[in-house]
Amino acid sequence: MKQLALDRMMPLTWAEGKWTGRGKGGFPTMDAFEYDSSIHVRFLEDAFDQEPLIHFEEIAWVYEKAERKFKHWETGFFKPANGEGIQFYVSHNTGRIEVTNGEYTAFDKMKKSFELRLESDFMRNEAGLKTAYKSFRTIQLNQDSLDYVLEMSTEDVSGRTLHLKASLSRVT
Question: In which domain, by residue range, is 48 found?
Answer without folding.
Answer: 2-170
